[in-house]
Amino acid sequence: MNLGFKLRPAHRHAMLIVVGLVGLSRIGMGFAMDSLNIYLKKEPVPIRRALADVPRILGQWEAVGDDQRLSEEFIEELGTDQFLTRSYEDASGRFLQLHLAYYTGMIDAVPHVPDRCLVATGGFDLDQRPENLPLAIDQSNWKKIDDSWFEVGIEDPLTGRIAGVSLPTGDLSLRTSSFIRSDQPGTVLWGGYFFVANGKFAATPESVKRLAFDPSQKMAYYCKVQLVTQMKRRQDRSEFVDASREFLELLLPYLMRSLPDWRSLTADLESS
Fold first, then answer.
1. DSSP for 159-217?
2. What is the number of structural domains in the chain?
3. In a 3-state reduction of DSSP, which class is residue 109?
4. 87 and 134 within one domain
5. Would the pTM count as exceeding 0.70?
6. Chain-wide mean pLDDT for the chain?
């Protein structure tokens, strides 16, 4: 295509210099990031065990019905095929729906969380805004390895062997909110979630993305852990938080058994 003008020799020379400088700057930036151990593109970390390997019986909590199946369209919207949606009930009739979703590699999607999805697509109204509530998980039976890790022994149901599982030491909070529907005036839906990201706990979508995008980390993953229940309008949120804490104390070791062993992965990288 004729644009109606030609570059003078001096202009062509200047343009070649600019193009060359841009190329050199990119190469130089790549060398600089390598030397400083800065990683903008994250390597995926395979999950160790399927999330469905979480036991269907956890203490007094027992799974109710089959694990929920999702349509191909919903899985595409979810952004991962590594997920679990399962309902649990205890002897006193308390009910919790557990949803786990695992992501790895380029963590650039906005996590699906109740305070966004239930309002946007579920037909619910937000009743109480999200609040990070400390869970005060009982760690008395966890062996502290160092400032970053505990170790917990769990029994393999097939072999009967006790295997050690690493758990992060950070405080765990449940980002909790409630929802109502105009056609169900007597009930309230409580939802809470947190994330495990690169071997640490995170309570908010913003904090989990900061962990996953840590430029010093070569790999990245996160797992959303979500609990939902329906209660009578007169019931207090403390009942949901208490049930969640009791359930999560039992769930966490088995969940961490499925997630990547970040303690070993980072130790291997440091020694290589």
1. T--EEEEEEE-S--EEEEEEEE-TT-TTEEEEEEEEEEETTEEE-SHHHHHHHHT-TT-
2. 2
3. coil
4. yes
5. yes
6. 81
Range of the domain at 16: 9-38
The two beta strands, 95-104 and 173-180, are unpaired
**79, 199: one domain:** yes
User: Does residue 138 surpass a pLDDT of 80?
Assistant: yes
Do the domain assignments include residue 4? no
103 lies in some domain: yes
User: In angstroms, rounded to a whole number, what is the distance separating the alpha carbons of residues 180 and 188?
Assistant: 5
Q: Would the pLDDT of 212 be above 60?
A: yes
Q: How many CA atoms lie within 13 A of 220 on its CB side?
A: 20
In a domain, residue 1? The reply is no
Q: Which of 38-42, 86-90, 244-248, 266-270 has the lowest mean pLDDT?
A: 38-42
What distance in Å separates the CA atoms of residue 217 and residue 233, rounded to the nearest whole number?
45
Tell me: pLDDT of 271 over 80. no
Do both 83 and 173 map to the same domain? yes
Identify the bridge partners of residue 162 per DSSP, sorted by sequence position: 155
How far apart are alpha carbons 255 and 100 in whole angstroms? 9
Q: Would 227 be classed as within a structural domain? A: yes
